[in-house]
Amino acid sequence: MACPNTTTDSFTLDKSAKIYVAGHRGLVGSALVRKLQTLGFTNLLLKSHSDLDLTNQSHVQNFFSTHKPDVVILAAAKVGGIHANNTYPADFITINLQIQTNVITSAFHHGVKKLFFLGSSCIYPKFAPQPIKEESLLTGPLEPTNEMYAIAKIAGIKMCQGYRIQYNWDAISAMPTNLYGPNDNFHPENSHVLPGLMRRFHEAKVLGKKEVVVWGTGAPLREFLHVDDLADAVVFLMEKYSGVEHVNVGSGVEVSIKELAELVKEVVGFEGELVWDTSKPDGTPRKLMDSSKLAGLGWVPKISLRDGLVDTYKWYLENVEQ
Ligand code: GFB
Predict the structure, then answer these.
(1) Distance from the CA of 215 to the center of ligand 1, in angstroms?
(2) Whole-number percent of the chain with pLDDT over 90
């Protein structure tokens, strides 16, 4: 495949650049807004879902023609944990394809200088060699529980590549590992494992319960990254990277779901027992990403899993609990 512009390139992200953060109320988008504001970016364009439905093509086109952002960070997506992905496959593929197609095409047609697309580590084959390198994309079958979401995200990567190859447009994409932090979804069924367990342990502690049910066998391995580290990496890549290939963003630290459950239990202060519900799916056995490409560019994460959990539980108590 012809790959123009495959090396790193310097893009000056001006402090006054008009940056549209799509999905600014979510886990990733809100972390990006905090990061950009801390760095002194003053011209952020933010629209909530009630003001702009990103699945509506004509609304998205009108928005871009009216506001003409310089830079777009596409963090809006329908996301969820293993149960939500398994239960609502039509929503996961349709809504994500609609959002990303509308935003990417409108950004291209309205003169956006740089677009950043965010995907997920579930784009890789279920049995990809570990740690997973960027080159593993499309080398084998996907994990069935999140195939629809993964296919939408793979389409997003390919759209960025297509526009770069055909038009030399500066669209880049990054694939974060499993994320957590403030503004996560703490829904008991539809969330990812970390916020789901945090809420369950907290409620069990408050109600004086003796047991908490945890899904699956506890054997799957997962890599977790605090969303503030991800936001830092996104800004870093916006400024330092311009290439056709997506970039993995991980912490390099892997834990089993059993180890994670024990750690969340300790941080929350629940003193009862864990009961494993093996009727629930484990999902992919392991998905540790190889983030050496990003490390080679000069970025490494800073927040340990324990510190990140303490920070997230504090946020949960101050926000969700209230
Ligand atoms: O975080 P999670 O839903 O997503 O589940 P994936 C990770 C593991 O934790 C699975 C187990 O083995 C679950 O069975 N688990 C244990 C739980 N207790 C719970 C619980 O209370 N809630 C949840 N949710 N899991 C997602 C994909 O896969 O990863 C998404 O479905 C996305 O598409 C995301 O890519 C990053 O890591 O398995």
Answers:
(1) 9
(2) 95
